[in-house]
TrEMBL record, chain A:
Species for this entry: Streptomyces dysideae
Catalytic activity entry: a quinone + NADH + 5 H(+)(in) = a quinol + NAD(+) + 4 H(+)(out)
Gene that specifies this protein: nuoN
Protein's name according to its UniProt entry: NADH-quinone oxidoreductase subunit N
Subunit structure: NDH-1 is composed of 14 different subunits. Subunits NuoA, H, J, K, L, M, N constitute the membrane sector of the complex.
Subcellular localization(s) per the UniProt record: Cell membrane; Endomembrane system; Membrane
Listed transmembrane segments: 30-49, 61-82, 102-120, 162-179, 185-203, 215-236, 270-295, 307-328, 340-359, 366-387, 393-414, 435-455, 475-499, 511-533
GO CC term, one of those recorded: endomembrane system
Automatic annotation (TrEMBL), chain B:
Organism: Streptomyces dysideae
Protein name: NADH:ubiquinone oxidoreductase subunit M
Membrane-topology annotation of the record: Multi-pass membrane protein
TM region(s), chain numbering: 31-51, 83-104, 150-168, 195-221, 242-260, 305-327, 334-353, 365-383, 403-426, 438-460, 480-499
Family: Belongs to the complex I subunit 4 family.
Any single biological process term in GO: ATP synthesis coupled electron transport
Keyword Transmembrane: yes
One Pfam family this sequence matches: Proton_antipo_M
Location(s), subcellular: Endomembrane system; Membrane
Keywords, ordered alphabetically: Membrane, Transmembrane, Transmembrane helix, Ubiquinone
GO molecular function per UniProt: NADH dehydrogenase (ubiquinone) activity; NADH dehydrogenase activity; ubiquinone binding
InterPro entries cross-referenced by the UniProt entry: NADH_Q_OxRdtase_chainM/4, NADH_UbQ_OxRdtase, ND/Mrp_TM
Domain NADH:quinone oxidoreductase/Mrp antiporter transmembrane: 147-451
Amino acid sequence: MSAPAVHSLWTTAADPISKIDAPKIEYGQLSPTLIVLGAAVIGVLIEAVVPRKSRYYTQVFVSAVALAAAFAAVVALAAGGYGTTKAGIVAMGAIAVDGPALFLQGTILLAGLVGLFTFAERRLDPLVHGNRVDSFAAQAASVPGSDSEKAAVKAGFTTTEVFPLLLFAVAGMLIFPAANDLLTLFIALEVLSLPLYLMCALARRKRLMSQEAAVKYFLLGAFASAFTLFGIALLYGYSGSVSYATIAQVVDGSAPDVNPALADTMGNDALLLVGAAMIVMGLLFKVGAVPFHMWTPDVYQGAPTPVTGFMAAATKVAAFGALLRILYVVLPGLRWDWRPVMWGVAIVTMLGGAIVAITQTDIKRLLAYSSIAHAGFILAGVIATTPDGISSVLFYLAAYSFVTIGAFAVVTLVRDAGGEATHLSKWAGLGRRSPLVAAVFAVFLLAFAGIPLTSGFAGKFAVFKAAAEGGAAPLVVVGVISSAIAAFFYIRVIVLMFFSEPRPEGPTVAVPSPLTTTAIGVGVAVTLVLGVAPQYFLDLANQAGVFVR
Amino acid sequence: MSFPLLTATAALPAIGAVATAAVPAARRTAAKWLALLVSLATLALAATTLIRFDPDGDRYQLTESHAWIAEFGVRYELGVDGIAVALIALTALLIPFIILAGWHDADPLETGDASLSSFAAGRWRPTQGFFALILAVEAMVIISFEATDVFLFYIFFEAMLIPMYFLIGGFGDRAHEHGEKAAATQRSYAAVKFLLYNLVGGLIMLAAVIGLYVVAGNFSLTEIAEARANGTLDMATSTERWLFLGFFFAFAVKAPLWPLHTWLPNAMGEATAPVAVLITAVVDKVGTFAMLRFCLQLFPEASKWATPAILVLALISIIYGALLAVGQRDIKRLVAYASISHFGFIIMGIFAMTSQGQSGATLYMVNHGISTAALMLVAGFLISRRGSRLIADYGGVQKVAPVLAGTFLIGGLATLSLPGLAPFVSEFLVLVGTFANYPVIGIIATFGIVLAALYTLVLYQRTMTGPVKPEVATMPDLRVRELVVVAPLVAVLIFLGVYPKPVTDIVNPAVKQTMSDVQKKDPQPEVEAAK
């Protein structure tokens, strides 16, 4: 290489420093995510610098403040019109700030906050060596049953890392439904998934089961992520871009310019169909739709119950948000292809979840299969492909997440010597021993079953109405049939609690601290308010029902 | 704005239910009195509604309308026509008697389980729950009679299943031939069967309700019916038929119509007598009422299309219910099958599409409520004395407890529609109305009356006459509380039997309206109903 050439290389390398445009970041509109991520980083630092004794309080305080502040930021953004008139794409096209994103972020943050309360509960287990303990392992690294575990327990260690993990997961969930290009989508997927895998492994009791659940979740989740990534690559090959808007334009055939490097593959429908299918598959895995649901029962059962509740609620919200955006923003031009497939998925999800749930004998597995059936109901709304479809799904997700967290919070209360008594036979006669707890759980079950005057009914009605208006009347029929099947096992639990004789050695109901009480109270209140007077929230979901493109 | 009388009539028992449930555990008697007072106050409000209602006025009166869930096109709309006002009065009339009759049904048992009683004695409050649930059912039934918004109706039509379910499953009859354990299993089975049947019916109706919204765009009964009548809302024939079937299925389960009836004998057999009355005399009436109000008004063409099939099913109900009643060994199940037979008559009257038939059916709803209440409550008193529901365990009771036997006989005679007692008028009207349009079905249905005579009189003969069985020899006669329950019911039965005009006057204009909805004229010559 000649000297002048080297010189010019050097100068062109040196000179453009001033020419690289600094990325334009709209900090205000990204503030909810940034607050949560910042707090998560602070949480990690707390683990490093704060004395062990005060870590728990510091972590709970920081997490609660961060989630509340992020929620306030979401409300401020929504009030400022960023959900409607000022909706737009920020962070160089990576993130969309629009109605659905803000609505879902608000839901996730509230679910995260309520979930945090159940994470922080330390009054349910008896004192261990004079220390209060929560639902998480004393030291995650110590092998179950080993001496080091005993030593960790004796020393009163607690895994306060769950709080920053929770915040990281929440941050990933905040980005997931707002992601506006496929790479951001994938990063968000990983950011939300990895902390969840970890948290699943952290149960204090039944640690092997918990670790098994985490491994299953991780392996299957990694597969799903790989599928998603492969799909992203194929879609990039198809369209020459990872941006939602560009892909949508190529799908519609209205792309302004063609990338010459990709001229050979661009517009190849095989790439589009296979790529889209793989991405959707990854998302359906996250929402737990049949046939991608296999992990749900094991993970729900093995994970510490507060984690299960949080995961069941918030992950579903985030994943459905991302699915909606993919289907409504990227692939509307393809809807004649994906609708029949999603019809099939919705039908087998509704029926499969409801039918298999009947045979369950463990309350957490039962709720897992019920969550699969609910994913099917929500899919019926997704398929509507109308503005009503979006708003009904948003409403359903908000209603469902609070019922779920509340229900799992109740599960943490019913305990015997081995920890939580999740086998259904142990719940016999609970209504006699603790009428209030049983009544609250009955409210949640009735909401799951979609009995009128609960939020479950309003949500179910909304999605079925949207589906019927969107021309999916057969889905509505399948939906009501599955609801009837599902009602059977919800009712079975109520029968067990109220009409069976209590067993003499049956479980007791622990008296929780105000934290869990608040979580359950919020769940009941939201369930009843959304059931009796849903208008305000339906309006909110309606206003939020437009995606920015 | 005027006083919202209809809301108040429904809200009062609802508030009463909450208040009753909140009474402290130790104050059981206070809870009972509170529930009784609330039900009497509700009766007063219902009576006011009845008085304020002008039979010759607008179709829907005392209307209230408020925005509720605009997103779904749902309004809080109430209004009563003659049929609704009569049934609200029936409900409000029966509830105090049901409460009085069940005065001791929910007293906590002295259990030997020390661990349970020490742990839960302070919190388990069955008595408060029992009466609160009864009031909750009353509130929901009343508001479903009042609702003129399909969605509002649907919500309470479904929601009333929950308190009903707890009443059946939680407070069943302790008398069982195979002991208490078997009773508990049977009770739980009956409650689940009740709930599942009705829930499936309700969910299928939900699909139809959504379908109706997609077609009509709102839920207002008056608006949709008007749009249907003047032709602005056109439904494809097949759509109308599917929607009709969705609605009718739910009502036929609730009513209950053969072959969807099988939950009723279980539920009535296992529930306590007052709850059985609540099921058959009050809650099930919502089903037949809704056929009149919703099926005929919203889907007149489909109703006419389905008439032959429904009449045949109703006829099967009449004969089949009566035949099975003849074969029962259990007093309460006998009354349940008799009720199925009577619901067959009511549904037949509704779909006979004549004004006699429909006013007969409405009158029948009221009369069946009162006569079944009388028969079932006395049967309950009888069963509580002997601790058995089996007919074979009784004999010669009339010699030991003549008043009990006498009232039982009157209730039975009312059930078989003896002339002079209230159900006769209605059954006669139904048969005449059916005969005018469908003579063959009318003739076959008449055999139901013969069978009714058979099962009622055989029941009376086996339990009350003959030699006195040793187990019943010391049976006490009716107590004051029980007399207070039975005497007014018997009086009403006799009064309406000789003078049904007050009820028919209120009901007839509404029936005329419904008839004009389905654009049916009575076959000539028109006979004025029972004036």
